[in-house]
Amino acid sequence: MSVLILGVGNILLSDEGLGVRVVERLKESYIFPENVKLLDGGTLGIDLLYFLEGVDRLIIIDAIIGGKAPGTVYKLSGEEVEAYFKRKVSVHEVGIQEVLGIAKLTGKYPKEVTVIGMEPQSLDISLELSPKIKENLEKLIQEVIKQLESWDIGVRHVDERTSHSL
């Protein structure tokens, strides 16, 4: 079973880039089995189709405007994913909607797609995440880890590797 963890967003617009920032943190802090790939999808749009080839399960990490308090974590699956992308309007989001649509038409759509995200606090021009998002980022990371565990995929924290290597 091939799994792709895809972080999307524009890192130039503060919290809009939280998907990319989560993938960076996951790469730094965790060790994944060989069948799990992590990708900074940034704002690649249609070019992401290439990376879906052979993927069975996909986790998309993104800023989600759902009308709740900044820092609220969201998890969408099944039909919720399609409904979510139908109402999104930023450049990278339309790209993902197109990628998933083409993937369906060409038989490349993963067996399971989950979107995990967080309500942004700021979409202003900045390379930094807002304080509220930084404060809650670990909750989002743990939601990604829980999703992997629900698929029977074990993930180890980097500290576990170093403590066992003595």
Describe the structure in your own words:
- With 166 residues, this protein is α/β, with parallel strands linked by helices.
- Helix content is 40%, strand content 22%.
- The protein is built from 6 helices and 7 strands, in the order βαββαββααβαβα.
- It has helices spanning 18-29, 49-52, 79-86, 91-105, 131-150, 158-164; strands spanning 3-8, 30-31, 36-42, 57-63, 73-77, 112-118, 156-157.
- The strands form 2 sheets. A 5-stranded mixed sheet has the order 3-1-4-6-5, with helices on both faces. Strands 2-7 form a two-stranded antiparallel ribbon.
- Helix 1 packs across helix 5.
- The model is unreliable at 89-94 and 162-166 (pLDDT under 50).
